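// run 5 | inverse folding | seed 20
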């Protein structure tokens, strides 16, 4: 690397000032924000700042991870295509980089980095998401292709995405983890039906998909046939890192334009608006949320550094993921408490109503990317050396495992 990190910082600072729009925190994400994100990603690409941590041969910058961190600091005052990180750039991309064939990497990574293609994850199923290896969607060989049948659910933004990484069962005669294969294919094609699910908070970002004799070629296999669990593990590892802010592939910073709740100052505003007789109580509520958030920053920094130095295994990302969910819940609770009676009716112009609405999705951070209970299981078994959870299906061919279908 001929350019020092300080030189890079100065170059990034000048380029951002000349090319990226300053963040207007009053602008909420709009339904067409994906198109805006693609356009902004195109600007980053032209400037040589897209996919900084990806290898050059796949369209990235080829920089060490610290350069992306510096770019994220410098880009904080600007509007960035932050949503493209989830799951395209920070989850699907790294998983394909680590497990895909050369051909697959050349096919997918440059188009992710340019913003041309958005990806999503088809993992969870109506029969359950925690027992991911127990999934029922099947892929069968036919005339050199694969034919996929089944259903996936809770796929974030599948209706807007172009491609999906989809885990399916290709062998029913081996134990559950051994009979899985990961595929990547275009979503909007014959054999795939995408239904948007309307949530209690009014969002329709979640989708359910149905596969009816969906035909995909052999080249859609990520990694090896039967090795899908290893690929899925990489997807989940990157998801945990991305969700908790520890991913080296994240470009940009979460800010008010991506979620008003990332802007904790709105909690402080709410606290300051409480009647004088409640001042002490409001400060306590706000203080708890602020302290938790501060602890999270330091925990993430410590764990990220220890993992980078190889002193902690990558599974330590599970601790970030768990604490992230705890903090998010605490903040959601604080927002609702401070909103008080103003939270009862939803007035979009009133931040109190927004926090009350936000409370409706309070549980999402403790489920997305694997539940908090599953994270606790990982920590207990892999860090604390506690005995493995009992499993009645261990070592048994999946065909013989009783299930609902
Ligand atoms: C914001 C968000 C985004 C998501 N995005 C996607 C996506 O893009 N793609 C996708 O495929 N999925 C996605 N999901 C789904 C998510 O992965 C699942 O919700 C999650 O894995 C849990 O699965 P489940 O909802 O089927 O719950 P279940 O697996 O049915 O579990 C129900 C409850 O039982 C608990 N439980 C289950 N097994 C155990 C156990 N062994 N020990 C202790 N407790 C247990 C769980 O913790 C949970 O509380 C998303 C979910 C959310 C909330």
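// decoded
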């Amino acid at each position: 690397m001929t350019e020092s990190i300080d030189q890079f910082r100065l170059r990034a600072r000048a380029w951002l000032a000349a090319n990226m729009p300053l963040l207007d925190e009053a602008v909420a994400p709009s339904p067409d924000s994906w198109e805006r994100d693609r356009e902004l990603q195109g600007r980053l690409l032209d400037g040589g700042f897209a996919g900084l941590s990806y290898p050059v041969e796949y369209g990235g910058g080829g920089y060490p991870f610290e350069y992306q961190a510096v770019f994220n600091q410098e880009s904080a005052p600007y509007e960035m295509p932050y949503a493209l990180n989830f799951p395209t750039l920070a989850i699907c991309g790294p998983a394909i980089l680590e497990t895909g064939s050369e051909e697959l990497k050349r096919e997918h990574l440059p188009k992710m980095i340019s913003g041309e293609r958005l990806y999503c994850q088809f993992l969870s199923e109506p029969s359950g998401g925690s027992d991911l290896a127990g999934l029922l969607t099947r892929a069968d060989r036919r005339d050199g292709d694969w034919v996929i049948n089944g259903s996936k659910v809770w796929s974030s933004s599948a209706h807007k995405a172009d491609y999906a990484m989809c885990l399916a069962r290709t062998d029913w005669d081996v134990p559950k983890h051994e009979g899985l294969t990961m595929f990547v294919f275009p979503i909007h094609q014959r054999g795939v039906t995408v239904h948007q699910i309307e949530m209690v908070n009014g969002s329709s970002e979640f989708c359910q998909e149905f596969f009816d004799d969906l035909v995909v070629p052999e080249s859609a296999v990520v990694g090896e046939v039967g090795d899908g669990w290893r690929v899925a593990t990489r997807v989940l590892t990157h998801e945990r890192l991305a969700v908790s802010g520890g991913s080296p592939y994240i470009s940009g910073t979460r800010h008010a334009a991506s979620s008003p709740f990332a802007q904790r100052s709105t909690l402080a505003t709410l606290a300051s608006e409480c009647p004088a007789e409640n001042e002490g109580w409001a400060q306590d509520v706000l203080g708890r949320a602020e302290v938790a958030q501060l602890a999270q920053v330091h925990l993430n920094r410590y764990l990220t550094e220890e993992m980078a130095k190889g002193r902690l295994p990558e599974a330590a990302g599970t601790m970030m993921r768990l604490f992230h969910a705890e903090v998010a819940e605490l903040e959601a609770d604080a927002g609702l408490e401070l909103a008080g009676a103003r939270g009862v009716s939803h007035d979009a112009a009133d931040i109190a109503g927004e926090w009350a609405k936000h409370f409706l999705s309070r549980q999402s951070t403790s489920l997305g990317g694997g539940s908090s209970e599953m994270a606790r299981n990982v920590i207990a078994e892999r860090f604390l050396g506690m005995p493995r959870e009992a499993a009645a299906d261990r070592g048994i061919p999946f065909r013989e495992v009783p299930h609902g279908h």
